[in-house]
């Protein structure tokens, strides 16, 4: 198999430190101990990029995302230095979206201004809840008052866009509480809102000591209340967890969901890169000390098997309300709709997938049971050719 035209390219920059590890978090992060090594880490990031760009000749970066950890622990001048270094090494799109994740407990108005002046165009604020007991249960370092202050500061900081993250399905949460959280967030009129269900991930503190979560019926009522509140305020639910005003969808995450490419730099960062022969996944080592020293930065490199490409494409594309077209499927996987008819037909017959001309998408019922649908696809794709692409 050979891929079609190369997909768009994004850059992900991982800053692994945070103030304290949240009990639900399964991302690579480390509780800060003492001053952050901004200078050595920046040099390592740019050295990593310098060594990586040789495999990306002529490719342009369409979006940049600072994730973590808590990237807002870095100073505005550090973020500026990173972006200047990236700009010297890679071509950036004229409208390059640059997002930075921020924790309400680590920022103020002056810090937001410094990030904007550094070149950040979009802020993503991890509020998660506006209910103090829930925040304490989630291990967050901020309280509801700090969250409100941070949202107001984000709204007035002059970013091109900003996002607010909220979680639902929390221990002891009611539908009324979830609805109140969404309404409070909408009061600051964010261009973008993300609503994530709390899930218990392996190797987290919550997995070791699970909290009591709402029942399935209660969780569905909570989700319905939250999503209806956002929808009635004019937000488009363009992805399972993402809501946006017109013109404010997250370009970086859209590239993920459309199975675009991304280069990840930083300790623990992941990459997905396409060349003329197929798709390769690369994982950086998680130890920041070794990463800064330049020792064995690559933990693993794996060329995806053909059937894995199909499943990973579906895993991402079916999260989008738009689904995917036959042209995109062919470009990303090498298959046409008819090649995979045995995959689609049962799901279409059960009302989980919809099909309109050259477009396939998950129906509302399919989105509700997306995890189960994807599990079926994982089993079904095992009959496809397994040779590496």
UniProtKB/TrEMBL annotation:
Cofactor requirement: [4Fe-4S] cluster
User: Localized where?
Assistant: Cytoplasm
An individual GO BP term: porphyrin-containing compound biosynthetic process
Major localization listed first in the record, in broad terms = cytoplasm
State one molecular function term (GO).
coproporphyrinogen oxidase activity
The record's section on Pfam families has: HemN_C (PF06969), Radical_SAM (PF04055)
- Which keywords does UniProt give here? 4Fe-4S, Chaperone, Cytoplasm, Heme, Iron, Iron-sulfur, Metal-binding, S-adenosyl-L-methionine
> GO cellular component terms?
cytoplasm
* PANTHER family the record matches: COPROPORPHYRINIGEN III OXIDASE, RADICAL S-ADENOSYL METHIONINE DOMAIN-CONTAINING PROTEIN 1, MITOCHONDRIAL
Tell me the protein family, please.
Answer: Belongs to the anaerobic coproporphyrinogen-III oxidase family. HemW subfamily.
Explain the purpose of this protein.
Answer: Probably acts as a heme chaperone, transferring heme to an unknown acceptor. Binds one molecule of heme per monomer, possibly covalently. Binds 1 [4Fe-4S] cluster. The cluster is coordinated with 3 cysteines and an exchangeable S-adenosyl-L-methionine.
What is this protein's record name? Answer: Heme chaperone HemW
């Amino acid at each position: 198999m050979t891929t079609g035209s190369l997909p768009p390219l994004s850059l992900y920059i991982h800053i692994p430190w945070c103030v304290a590890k949240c009990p639900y978090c399964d991302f690579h992060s480390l509780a800060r101990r003492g001053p952050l090594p901004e200078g050595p880490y920046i040099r390592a990031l740019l050295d990593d990029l310098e060594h990586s760009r040789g495999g990306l000749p002529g490719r342009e970066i369409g979006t940049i995302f600072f994730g973590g950890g808590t990237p807002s622990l870095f100073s505005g001048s550090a973020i500026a230095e990173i972006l200047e270094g990236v700009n010297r090494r890679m071509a950036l799109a004229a409208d390059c979206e640059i997002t930075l994740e921020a924790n309400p407990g680590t920022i103020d108005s002056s810090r937001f201004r410094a990030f904007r002046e550094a070149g950040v165009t979009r802020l993503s604020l991890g509020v998660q809840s506006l209910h103090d007991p829930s925040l304490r249960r989630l291990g967050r370092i901020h309280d509801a008052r700090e969250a409100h202050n941070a949202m107001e500061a984000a709204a007035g900081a002059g970013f091109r866009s900003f996002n607010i993250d909220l979680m639902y399905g929390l221990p002891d949460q009611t539908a009324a509480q979830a609805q109140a959280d969404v309404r409070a967030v909408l009061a600051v009129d964010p261009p973008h809102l993300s609503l994530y269900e709390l899930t218990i991930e392996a190797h987290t503190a919550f997995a070791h000591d699970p909290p009591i979560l709402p029942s399935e019926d209660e969780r569905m009522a909570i989700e319905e209340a939250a999503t209806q509140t956002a929808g009635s305020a004019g937000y488009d639910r363009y992805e399972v967890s993402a809501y946006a005003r017109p013109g404010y969808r997250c370009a970086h995450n859209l590239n993920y969901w459309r199975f675009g490419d991304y280069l990840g730099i930083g300790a623990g960062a992941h990459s997905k890169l396409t060349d003329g022969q197929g798709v390769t996944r690369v994982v950086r080592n998680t130890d920041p000390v070794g990463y800064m020293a330049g020792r064995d930065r690559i933990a693993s490199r794996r060329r995806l098997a053909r059937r894995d490409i199909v499943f990973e494409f579906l895993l991402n594309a079916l999260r989008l309300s738009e689904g995917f077209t036959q042209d995109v499927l062919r470009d990303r996987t090498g298959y046409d709709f008819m090649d995979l008819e045995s995959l689609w037909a049962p799901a279409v017959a059960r009302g989980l997938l919809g099909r309109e001309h050259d477009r396939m998408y998950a129906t509302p019922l399919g989105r509700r049971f997306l995890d189960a649908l994807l599990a079926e696809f994982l089993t079904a794709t095992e009959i496809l050719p397994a040779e590496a692409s």
